[in-house]
Target: Roadblock/LC7 domain-containing protein
Amino acid sequence: MMQQRANMDWMLKDLAESVPQTRQVVVLSADGLRMAQYGADTDSADRLAAACAGLQSLAVAVASEFPGSDGRMRLVVIEVTGGLFYLMAAGAGAYLAVLADDGVDAGLIGARMRDLVARIGEHLSSPPRSDGQVA
Model:
């Protein structure tokens, strides 16, 4: 498990360093637990992961309003003063979140996120939990 996490951290670093103005990259489970991170301290990554769980839930609720939708969230982008936030589905029960400064190349960050998910999607899935334990 520790080796897998080290490999994931390295890949997150690669994503962040390949796109100028990327601040933070976090992989999280659907229930908001941080699985891997790059570019921020643990507390910040944990807060972002928890917030993403709520955002993902809202996105699913919105998706259900589209006729013919399967109700799954694929990508959420939020622009705020100072930067952009991206949340992308990244495997069964896992998500990839990125914070970037204003001026980031939005197309490049989206493409690099998709590439990362495609490359390591099977490592980004999170097994369901029961009674707080990983199943």
Notes: Residues 2-126 form a domain with the Beta-Lactamase fold (CATH 3.30.450.30). The chain has three helices and seven strands. The longest strand covers residues 22-29. Helices lie at 2-18, 42-63, 106-120.
